[in-house]
């Protein structure tokens, strides 16, 4: 997957987690938490969705890498480039 | 071999099941009763629908509000806000002999009531609000502090303390007399800061949504399959034996049957366990009216009454019921869209009851007692609200015996044991508890409990 595709996939996951939220104008550089009020349970969801959809494993101590869209895509790129 | 076996198809078990099935776990829910819902079930009698639990769903939040427990659980269960179809309360009341306090889903009403009826106490109430908002239910520091002491110090008015405790104890306190500070804060937020709502179709709508989703995700549900025993290999739980003798294996087990009840299934003798099961159980007198409650002068959604200035939250020991305090709820009095209404008027009155006495009498005495205490409960309630008795067309009543039949909880204790097990862990590896005895009670609370135990001990543990 290209970074653009990974970004699209993360957006899709966010849409799934928060069907009532508008995520179309998310700012990639800002933390998700500031824009979407995600809590720790939601971060678990992002991790679990990635595992369910793409078998990507993210160890608990690396959940912090998923803070913003930019950091998430950068972190996932090596793990998802061959998918 | 299942990934996870869940004991109990109440709110907490179903919620945990959905969460796990969603992430591909092979889950089986085992339920002893012939229907789902546990404490929050429903039945049909003489052509009418009755709810067993559900006066009101607490923790109301409008669509789009993601912060509170309701928003969080909808997200976790992948439900749209509309699917719970929650309609807000019309307004409720705490009624004591000389003072009453009205409240609704906007805290400003309660604030103004306190300003009017407890002059000079507004600042103290604001300070109390501050500490409740600051209370962190995740880190649970000072969870076990005495709510009575903290309220007494902060408010400096004994009557106001009793009046605030009354609805919060009624809707979620497993402990007699006093309340854990943490539980007080959780209940305060869920009732006064978030508020009451109900779907027009009652609890069956919520249950149908939960069970449909669970099945769609491939979850297995076995009704009339009680768990007799939990099997362990040294210190690790490995499976269960059903009432029928059948044996099932699982990598993990989550039990919503209660702490003491689950420990007994593991063969732990009661005397070796710390603490004791809860004792607070209820009767509920249900009256069906030939008019809308509003047309006979009953406007509020819920009235929490108490007939003296001291609120006694105790299991009745001299009598089989205690009707000095009670909850009066009309499911008609919610703001349903387009002025739709339930076909008939319903008045439900809940009062305290003694489990032991209700369950040890003969059948004939039981039938007699039901009639007697239906009358007493209603007579007690109409001291605080318009007398609706002329309009009654049908009645029913459930007792601690009924509650026990739906849940198997010791003593028919509605809110379980006073000591909560917030971690959900037990003496056995891979056996966890969720629901009432884990920490959160009520409909929303038990769903949150099921979700958090599934997250913490199954999903997170696997990553
Ligand atoms: C009269 C009344 C009114 C209430 N009103 C409200 C209200 O208005 N608002 C609100 O939020 N909450 C209300 N509640 C509280 C709410 O119903 C409970 O807190 C909640 O339903 C608890 O869910 P749970 O999953 O923890 O436990 P339960 O509902 O007790 O579920 C446990 C399940 O496990 C099953 N089980 C037990 N042992 C076994 C076994 N060995 N094998 C297999 N299955 C077993 C039981 O049959 C049961 O189905 C009310 C309760 C009552 C009794």
From TrEMBL, chain A:
UniProt KW keywords: Phosphopantetheine, Phosphoprotein
- A cellular component annotation (GO) from this entry: membrane
SUPFAM superfamilies membership: ACP-like
- The answer to whether the entry has keyword Phosphoprotein is yes
Offer an example of a GO molecular function term for this protein.
acyl carrier activity
Show where the Carrier domain sits: 4-80
- List, in alphabetical order, the GO biological process terms annotated in this UniProt record: lipid A biosynthetic process
Q: Does the keyword Acetylation apply?
A: no
- Give the protein's recorded name: Acyl carrier protein-like
Lineage, please? Bacteria, Pseudomonadati, Planctomycetota, Planctomycetia, Pirellulales
Automatic annotation (TrEMBL), chain B:
Q: Which PANTHER family match?
A: 4,4'-DIAPONEUROSPORENE OXYGENASE, PHYTOENE DESATURASE
- Family per similarity comment: Belongs to the carotenoid/retinoid oxidoreductase family.
What are the Amine oxidase domain coordinates in residue numbering?
A: 11-256
What's the name of the protein?
Answer: Probable phytoene dehydrogenase
Record bears the keyword Oxidoreductase: yes
Per the database entry, which stretches of residues form a coiled coil? none
Keyword Hydrolase set for record: no
Keywords, alphabetical: Oxidoreductase
Q: Name one GO molecular function term.
A: oxidoreductase activity
Pfam hit, one: Amino_oxidase
């Amino acid at each position: 997957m290209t970074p653009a595709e990974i970004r699209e996939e993360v957006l899709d996951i966010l849409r799934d987690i928060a069907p009532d939220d508008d995520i179309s104008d998310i700012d990639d550089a800002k933390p998700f938490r500031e824009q979407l009020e995600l809590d720790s349970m939601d971060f678990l969801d992002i991790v679990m969705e990635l595992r369910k959809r793409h078998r990507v494993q993210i160890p608990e101590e690396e959940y912090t890498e998923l803070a913003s869209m930019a950091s998430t895509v950068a972190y996932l790129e090596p793990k998802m480039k061959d998918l | 071999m299942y990934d996870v076996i869940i004991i109990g198809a109440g709110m907490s078990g179903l919620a945990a099941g959905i969460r796990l099935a969603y992430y591909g776990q092979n889950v089986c829910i085992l339920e002893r009763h012939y229907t789902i819902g546990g404490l929050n079930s429903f039945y049909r009698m003489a052509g009418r629908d009755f709810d067993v639990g559900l006066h009101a769903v607490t923790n109301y939040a409008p669509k789009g509000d993601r912060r509170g427990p309701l928003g969080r659980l909808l997200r976790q269960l992948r439900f749209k806000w509309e699917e719970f179809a929650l309609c807000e309360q019309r307004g409720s009341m705490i009624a004591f002999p000389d003072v009453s306090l009205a409240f609704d889903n906007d805290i400003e009403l309660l604030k103004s009531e306190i300003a009017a009826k407890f002059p000079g106490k507004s600042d103290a109430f604001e300070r109390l609000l501050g500490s409740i908002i600051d209370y962190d239910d995740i880190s649970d520091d000072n969870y076990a502090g005495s709510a009575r002491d903290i309220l007494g110090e902060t408010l400096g008015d004994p009557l106001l303390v009793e009046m605030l405790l009354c609805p919060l104890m009624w809707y979620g306190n497993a402990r007699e007399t006093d309340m854990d500070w943490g539980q007080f804060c959780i209940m305060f937020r869920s009732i006064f800061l978030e508020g009451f709502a109900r779907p027009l179709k009652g609890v069956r709508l919520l249950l149908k949504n939960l069970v449909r989703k669970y099945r769609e995700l491939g979850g297995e549900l076995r009704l009339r399959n009680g768990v007799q025993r939990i099997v362990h290999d040294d210190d690790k739980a490995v499976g269960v034996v059903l009432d029928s003798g059948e044996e099932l294996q699982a990598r993990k087990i989550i039990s919503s049957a209660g702490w003491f009840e689950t420990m007994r299934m593991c063969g732990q003798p009661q005397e070796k366990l710390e603490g004791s099961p809860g004792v607070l159980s209820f009767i509920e007198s249900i009256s069906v009216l030939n008019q809308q409650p509003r047309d006979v002068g009953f406007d509020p959604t819920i009235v929490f009454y108490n007939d003296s200035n001291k609120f006694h939250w105790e299991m009745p020991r001299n009598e089989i019921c205690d009707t000095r305090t009670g909850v009066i709820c009309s499911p008609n009095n919610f703001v349903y869209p387009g002025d739709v209404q339930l076909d008939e008027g319903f008045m439900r009155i809940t009062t305290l009851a003694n489990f032991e006495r209700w369950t040890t009498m003969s059948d004939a005495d039981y039938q007699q007692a039901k009639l007697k205490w239906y009358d007493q409960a209603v007579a007690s309630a109409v001291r605080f609200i318009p007398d609706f008795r002329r309009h009654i067309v049908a009645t029913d009543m459930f007792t601690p015996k009924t509650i026990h039949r739906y849940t198997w909880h010791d003593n028919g204790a509605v809110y379980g044991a006073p000591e909560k097990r917030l971690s959900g862990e037990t003496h056995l590896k891979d056996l966890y508890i969720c629901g009432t005895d884990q920490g959160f009670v009520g409909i929303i609370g038990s769903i949150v409990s099921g979700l958090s135990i599934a997250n913490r001990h199954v999903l997170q543990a696997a990553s």
